[in-house]
Amino acid sequence: MCTSIVEVIPAEGMAKRGDDWFELDQTVVAYDHARHAYLGDVITLDFTNTSLEPGARAAVELTLDTAKELRAALDRAIAAAELEEAELRERGAPPERGPRLVRVA
Amino acid sequence: MSFYRGMTCENITLKGDKGTPITAYVAKPEGNGPFPGVVLVHHLPGWSEFYIETTRRFAHHGYIAICANLYERAGDGHPDDVAAKVRAEGGIADSQMVGDTAAAVAWMRSQPNLNGKVGIFGSCSGGRHAFIYACQKTDVDACVDLWGGRVVMEPSELNEKTPVAPIDMTKDLSCPLLGIFGNDDRAPSPEQVDQHEAALKANNKAYDFHRYDGAGHGIFYWHRPLYRPEAAMDGWSKVFAFFGKHLSK
């Protein structure tokens, strides 16, 4: 964290570690020294549950280019998801509880 | 004694800042001594294997060495996970680090075969912490800061955990300082190292800075792409020469 670039946001969802899934309550986005990737500084994503032990963490270390591509893919998927949600609302369908998945084309 | 010195290593429990128990890894060289001591202040990746190895490295070179787990309060687990938790929490408070490190120094000074001299050593955030400790306390005899970032801080970076920029503590530095930096580093940048050096000069402090071209952050980290073998070998020789000079009785 010599860079001091750290963003912490609440999270809702689940993450997998080993064979087990755990509920999330936090996502941490940082630009920091890689711990495992054979890279210098990386974008790190930590999906965690702060009420569990520190090992309740799904972590990735990404190059900046990969992070940008991920951001673009997220933007596309979210835009499509919001379009679909809007169509459902127009048809008067009851809102789904919790996050819903977008079907694979 | 054979060329390769034996050693004993164990985990001990210290009474850290505010009396909180924390674990520390210690390595003691074989023999009666007396030995100088080194207190290691680990980096932001936590109480990592690199630091445990480096603790043993100092014992191999004839120093009693101790490295306290400054992240113990974040919980049990793999050091990577614990360090990630600490990162999310904005790091540890400088004051807590000083309290925990004071416990490690006190342990060191209680060792019957210590020669009375204690050095402090840290890299990355640990370099910054080692410098802060040497400015706030007077119980260490030499300080090694390896590429410590955020010694120079903008007012906007100060917060409850880091209320004072370390560079502003320079006037209180209580012992000689060795600094090792890479000229490609961004934290600290060469300009920030210049500012730190200017502050040391202005306060008539004993210091020795070495800067390596073609090297950035983490020069000694043999397991990372940041590793620079030539600079690391030269840097280690400077560390041992510095401690050899200031920690011998």
Could you please describe the fold and organization of this structure?
The complex is a heterodimer of chains A (105) and B (249). The longest helix of chain A has 27 residues, at 64-90. With 105 residues, chain A is an alpha+beta fold. In chain A, strands 1-2-3-4 form a 4-stranded antiparallel sheet. The N and C termini of chain A lie far apart (40 Å). The mean pLDDT of chain A is 88. Chain A has one helix at residues 64-90; strands at residues 5-17, 20-33, 41-48, 57-62. Chain A folds into 2 domains: 1-62, no CATH class; 64-105, no CATH class. Chain A has 1 helix and 4 strands; from the N terminus they run ββββα. Chain B has 249 residues and is an alpha/beta fold. Chain B has a single domain (7-246), classed as 3-Layer(aba) Sandwich (Rossmann fold), CATH 3.40.50. Helix content of chain B is 33%, strand content 23%. Chain B has 6 helices and 8 strands; from the N terminus they run βββαβααβαββαβα. An 8-stranded mixed sheet of chain B has the order 1-2-4-3-5-6-7-8, sandwiched between helices. In chain B, helix 3 crosses helix 4. The longest helix of chain B is centred in the last third of the chain and has 18 residues, at 229-246. Chain B is globular and about 50 Å long. The two termini of chain B are 21 Å apart. The model of chain B has no long low-confidence stretch (mean pLDDT 96). The interface between A and B is medium-sized, with 26 and 31 residues.
